[in-house]
Structure formats: C-alpha cells, structure tokens
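G., the chain you wanted modeled:
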Amino acid sequence: MDMGIAGKKALVCASSKGLGRGCAEALAEAGVNLVMNARGAETLEAVAEDIAGKYGVDVVAVPADVTTEEGRAKLLEAAGDVDILVTNAGGPPPGMWTDWDRDDFIAALDANMLAPIALMKALLPQMMEKGWGRVVNITSQSVKSPIAVLGLSNSARAGLTGYVAGTSRQVAPHGVTINNMLPGIHATDRAVSLDKGVSEQEGISAEEAKARREKTIPAQRYGTAEEFGAMCAFLCSQHAGFIVGQNILLDGGAVNTTL
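Predicted structure as tokens:
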C-alpha cells in the first residue's frame, strides 16, 4: 500500500531501539524523512545512519532528554517544520503502591504525560496552519486494563489519554489527527527487563518467565517492533484522516474487552 506520505518529515522520540525504532523504520520505508531522538548519542547515531542507508531518506539524529525544557528546545529547533510527531518514552519502574512518593509520580508524569503534551503544544499550530498533520502517542495497554505493579505508568498514561481525547477533536477540523497506540508485550528490551524481574523474584529462568507470559496472550507470542511500526505508519498515512482520538490496542488479544 502506498501510504501517500513520501517526502514528509517526522519527529520520532525514543527511536534508537524497540517500538520507537520500529515506527521510525516503517515511516522511513514509506519515504518519510526523519528526525530521530533518544538520550544515548552513540546508539542513536548508529541507528540513524543505518536507516538512512537502508531507505534512502534524510535522517537527523538529535540526542536529548525530552523530559527537560532544555532537551525539548534542542529537539524542536532541530526538528523545525515537521508533518508527523510520534511521542514515546520508556515506562516507569514497576512496584507497589507503598513504594512511590510524590517525586516518583512527578518523574512519571514528566516522561509519559507532560513531555508529549509539550511537544504537541509546540508542533500542532504549524500542522494546523498547513491543514495536515499526524500525531501518534505510544502509550500502553494499561490505559484500558490497568496493571497493578505499573501504577506509575497507569496514572501518567491515563492522563495523556484524557488530554488527547479532548485535543484531538479540537484540531481535527484542521486536517490534523491525534491517536494513541497501546502496546502489550513486544519483543523489546522492556520485555526482557520484565521477564528478568519475574525470573529473579520467582527463581525461574528468563525463558520460563517468557513462556509463562506468552501463555497469557491469546496470540501465544510477543509482538514485534516491525508490526507495531506498520500500524504507526498507517495512522500517519493519507488513509487515516478519519481516525481521530482513538486508542488502538496492539496486544495479541491480551486485554479481554468487548469495546
């Protein structure tokens, strides 16, 4: 399928690995020029060079921490006039409700709610002026089905979801769409970390922890960054202009709901 977005420009956050990289690769395959961001400069620059060589698009790597005002300013200056924004950030650490204090919640909000909102606020006006734009926020399946040990993530991502619900409908008349992608477990470093935590806590191997988790997923496997990226590219395409303010699960059927 021709996505109809060749030559457009996208800013993709946290895109040096995992789901962010999957989105960056899929957009590059569709002919989109990229501004890629992550905190680690060395890995980011290597991935940017690889994607540019593979797909023949322009790729600019901007190492920065988008949870800080300084980092966002650096990124936005480099990004300039972008047509597409993909926000993404690693989830806060798991734990129990008794473990977290105010500082923990502030850190989670900065990374998973306030930074994406700040980027949208900065970039939406120029998209609206052009009459075309796409924003995709990578959140979590926990928005629809809260995960007890991920209370920090549940809270921050639910706040972002509420913001998008209202804002997406305000910008839609200007040809700009905002949607959220809600990943379940995918074969990324995050999954490895979670499986390692279970293996250490229960005294089992990481492979056993993974196999046990896979049995809880109707698809009986973890998702891949490639198929996640493909959905991101579609939401950013010319074909998705009538999809507004939606929360799209990519979880292999793990969240058991009718709606």
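Helices lie at 18-29, 41-55, 69-79, 102-130, 151-171, 189-202, 206-214, 225-235.

Shout if anything looks off.
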